[in-house]
Amino acid sequence: MTDGAYDIINKAHVVQELQESSLIEEALERFRQRLLMSGVKDDSTVIVVEI
Description:
This is PPM-type phosphatase domain-containing protein. The protein is mainly alpha-helical and about 50 residues long. The chain contains 3 helices and no strands.
């Protein structure tokens, strides 16, 4: 996660979203929505890898 996203989405948010989502895509969409709603000005990237 880049600093633009990390400032908005902390570790607790990541754990919560991944536990509540049945698909990784759902969690990523929630991360995207949270970033958009925050008004983040910096670029941001979130990558989730399923093992």
